[in-house]
UniProtKB/TrEMBL annotation:
Bias kind Low complexity: ranges: 522-558, 565-590
Species of origin: Tetraselmis sp. GSL018
Spans annotated as Disordered: 426-462, 492-593
Signal peptide (from-to): none
Protein origin, superkingdom: Eukaryota
Record's protein name: Potassium nkt2-like protein
Keyword flag Metal-binding: no
Main location: membrane
Keywords for the protein's UniProt record, in alphabetical order: ANK repeat, Ion channel, Ion transport, Membrane, Potassium, Potassium channel, Potassium transport, Transmembrane, Transmembrane helix, Transport, Voltage-gated channel
Start and stop residues of the ANK repeats: 656-688, 756-788
Family named by the database record: Belongs to the potassium channel family. Plant (TC 1.A.1.4) subfamily.
InterPro entries for this protein: Ankyrin_rpt, Ankyrin_rpt-contain_sf, cNMP-bd_dom, cNMP-bd_dom_sf, Ion_trans_dom, KAT/AKT, RmlC-like_jellyroll
Subcellular location: Membrane
Length: 813
């Protein structure tokens, strides 16, 4: 199948098909017949019946009915118009078809009656007989037509009355009522009636089928729900589940059943991948970019997370994370309210925190693959983004740079723990603080110099310089307290609108936009926090861009890449997904650590948590380094460019001290070396035991294209005077003339002295290597140089009886 977009071809197809249909439907047949037959088109006989010429002209007018094919467009448009309900569109279409068909049948019966003149010749002289037959002047006669005949006192001789009788007969016959009060009398009327009834069989079946489809659609949905509910009830009865738990299970079933057809997975699966990515980007990217954990991550990495993540609904009072249980999913609150309860052995009572929309929870035990120290419970109906561990590992393999940025943000968050509202959530009631208490909470949350009160977290100073790890460890302890709302029961569950209304509950908890701005940090190589590409809220500290390649480098790398509810009511339990999800959450300070970080960074455990996270980060960095080096060895330019675009550090070395550029040079990957050099890799860094990349290229026998490329970017051998002499002497002694030639082409000093001040020319004379002597002399090594004993290369050649070399040196003198 091919789509035709050429106007010329579309016009040609119209001329071959529908043009003739439209032409026949608009021809003025009445004037044509009057002009052709001298006005017989509207004539009638002496008794009122139509003449044969008039009948022929009237039959031609039926071609105007061909315009009905334009109604197909009218019927198709409501069917695919989602603004009109499906039931309304179906009823509208059926009624229009019924009215048109019965109108046509009525007009046809009227026409047949007119052909026979309606029996007007006996009008006024007819009367019904005792046996039901029509009497004219007392004599029984056969009726020529049933419509408006002389023996039908119920129908007058006017056009309107006769048309209404015809339409009445058509509707009664189509609906199969069949009173029998009006029956066809002539052979033509009987024949048309037979054809009309046969068509009505199909028309009736079509109308009944469409109405049944509308009614059965809702019944199927209800039946599916009842089947799932009955299976769940049977399961509850078999296993003896208590009533409180069973009612919760049924509520979850209803919530998920009502909303599963509107879920992202169900709706977006019919869309192409690119469009699905755009929709998810529009809906949820604002949440990800507002989180501290995803700061500095590229958009490709975040898009991959959105595609791999799922979005689930949870009823109130559901524990998503339980104290002491392993966390196998990374979760973010999209909509709803939650609270976090942290229980410590050193604390007499648990600490309670509210989880705000757009916040992550359970991230530390998720990455460290350990048990949780907090309990996260839903307060209202919540929509949560869930990323499984299997999906995370696949993303980790495909985007190591983005994963590294996430882990660095997580480790850095342990250095910038700031005050957070604590909530005393009771089972039955809670008392909200008064205005004075709220003002005190606001003051302590926004004033960095407020007097410390209790130990909840660490607050970094907001000066112009970020302190080191020791300074952070000695930072003052600050906290603030507020009360949380009551835990919502199932009857009170409501999902708050994205933009709070004036009637929204005031819990007295300061939002993060009211708290002091804190600089975001990342880890420097020594483990201390350093400024990352984040900035606090406010214009006084601009956001510093991440290091990027130059335009020339970027263009080259791109070339390589091309090649190679607003509310929820329990009557319906339906949550609406508005486009405001892509906006920033209610609290927009993305530099505030999550409740999980706060629970893991309490007094006495912050250093341990940081050390465990750093160990996990180091393992990840080692894996990334190995993957990067292996990518350079095998010459995978596409994977290398993807890693460079994610900001992977190209100056790293593996456990053997081998660097990325050394791996590419050692494997002879010229294209990889070119990409690395254009990406700004340091060309003269030495590897452990292999020297500089240029020295490694000479040792590994690289071709001159590789050596010239390195030298073009300023590469050097990195050898001192005696080191250069020892290398030259060893090359001559081993007879490796190609290695010697590459060293000399790289600009090594041919007269460099090794041990005992001997040059490579001395060694060539002693071992009798005439070719090496020619190369050294041509490179500028003088045969008159003497070692510590005062011997020249000629003396060594004479002692070794090397006649050819003796002659060569004598010629040079």
């Amino acid at each position: 199948m091919r789509y035709v977009v050429s106007r010329r071809r579309i016009a040609a197809r119209y001329l071959r098909c529908l043009f003739w249909v439209d032409l026949l439907s608009v021809m003025p047949y009445g004037p044509i017949c009057n002009a052709a037959f001298g006005g017989c088109g509207s004539g009638s006989g002496p008794t009122g019946e139509l003449t044969p010429c008039a009948i022929t002209c009237r039959m031609l007018v039926f071609f105007h009915l061909l315009r009905i094919h334009r109604l197909l467009t009218l019927f198709t448009s409501p069917k695919y118009n989602t603004e009109a309900p499906f039931a309304v569109a179906t009823l509208f279409r059926n009624y229009v078809v019924t009215v048109l068909w019965t109108h046509f049948a009525g007009c046809m019966m009227y026409f047949l009656a007119k052909v026979y003149g309606f029996g007007s010749e006996a009008w006024g002289r007819a009367s019904p007989g005792p046996d039901g037959r029509c009497l004219i002047d007392g004599e029984p006669v056969d009726v020529t037509t049933w419509l408006g005949g002389p023996c039908d006192p119920a129908v007058g001789p006017t056009f309107g009355e006769r048309y209404m009788v015809s339409l009445y007969w058509a509707i009664v016959t189509m609906t199969t009522v069949g009173y029998g009060d009006k029956t066809p009398a002539t052979a033509a009327e009987i024949a048309f009636t037979v054809l009309y009834i046969l068509v009505n069989i199909g028309m009736g079946a079509y109308i009944i089928g469409t109405i049944t489809l509308v009614a059965v659609g809702n019944d199927e949905t209800l039946r599916a729900y009842r089947e799932k509910s009955s299976r769940l009830l049977e399961y509850i009865e078999v296993h003896g589940i208590p009533p409180q738990m069973s009612s919760c299970m049924l509520a979850h079933l209803r919530l998920n059943f009502v909303n599963e057809q509107a879920s992202d997975e169900q709706v977006l699966q019919i869309l192409p991948l690119t469009l699905r990515r755009k929709v998810l980007h529009y809906l949820y990217m604002g949440r990800l970019t507002s989180s501290y954990l995803f700061s500095g991550c590229c958009s490709t990495f975040l898009d991959r997370i959105l595609q791999a993540a799922g979005f689930e609904l949870y009823m109130p009072q559901v524990q998503l994370v339980t104290h002491g249980s392993p966390v196998t999913e990374l979760m973010m609150l999209i909509q709803g309210d939650m609270h976090c309860s942290v229980t410590r052995l050193s604390s007499a009572s648990p600490k309670e925190y509210s989880v705000e929309e757009g916040e992550l929870f359970g991230e530390i035990p998720f990455f460290m693959e350990t048990v949780s120290t907090e309990t996260i419970t839903t307060v209202s109906v919540c929509r949560v983004m869930v990323l499984s561990r299997a999906a995370w590992r696949s993303i980790l393999d495909a985007h190591p740079g983005g994963a590294k940025a996430m882990l660095e943000n997580l480790v850095a968050s342990t250095f910038r723990v700031i005050p957070r509202a604590s909530c005393n959530v009771g089972r039955g009631s809670s008392q909200a603080p008064g205005p004075a208490a709220n003002e005190e909470v606001q003051r302590r949350a926004t004033d960095p110099e407020a007097e410390p009160e209790a130990s909840v977290g660490l607050c970094l100073p907001t000066g112009s310089h970020m302190p080191d790890a020791e300074a952070v460890a000695e930072a003052p302890l600050v906290s603030s307290y507020a009360s949380c709302p009551h835990p919502c029961t199932l009857q009170d569950a409501v999902l708050e609108p994205e933009h709070p209304s004036p009637r929204r509950r005031n819990t007295g908890t300061p939002t993060r936009r009211d708290r002091a701005p804190v600089r975001s940090t990342s880890l420097s190589p020594d483990g201390s926090p350093s400024l990352r590409s984040l900035s606090p809220l406010g214009p006084h500290l601009p956001e510093s861009p991440r290091p990027t390649l130059s335009s020339r480098h970027s263009s080259l790398l791109r070339g390589h890449a091309r090649r190679g509810p607003s509310s929820l009511r329990l009557s319906t339990l339906r949550i609406s997904q508005s486009s405001s999800l892509n906006s920033s959450p209610r609290t927009t300070n993305r530099y505030q650590p999550s409740p999980t970080v706060l629970s893991w960074c309490t007094a006495g455990e912050q250093q341990e948590t940081r050390a465990r996270l750093k160990a996990y980060l180091d393992r990840h960095n080692d894996n990334v380094t190995q993957k990067l080096i292996e990518c350079c060895r095998r010459g995978d330019s596409t994977a290398l460019i993807n890693m460079i675009s994610e900001g992977i550090d190209l100056e790293v070395a593996d456990y053997n001290g081998q660097r990325v550029l050394h791996a590419a040079v050692g494997a002879g990957q010229l294209e990889i070396v070119r990409i690395l050099l254009l990406a700004g890799v340091e060309v003269n860094k030495s590897g452990l035991g292999v020297g500089t990349p240029l020295m490694l290229a000479c040792k590994m026998g690289a071709d001159m294209a590789m050596i010239n490329l390195l030298m073009k970017h300023g590469a050097a051998l990195g050898l001192t005077g005696q080191e250069a002499g020892d290398v030259l002497c060893a090359a001559v002694y081993d007879g490796d003339r190609s290695f010697l030639s590459r060293l000399l082409n790289c600009g090594i000093d041919a007269a460099a002295r090794g041990a005992d001040s001997r040059t490579a020319l001395h060694v060539a004379a002693a071992v009798g290597s005439l070719t090496s002597a020619h190369l050294l002399v041509a490179a500028g090594c003088s045969p008159a140089l003497r070692d510590v004993w005062g011997r020249t290369p000629l003396d060594d050649a004479s002692d070794s009886n090397q006649v050819a070399l003796i002659d060569f040196f004598l010629e040079l003198e």
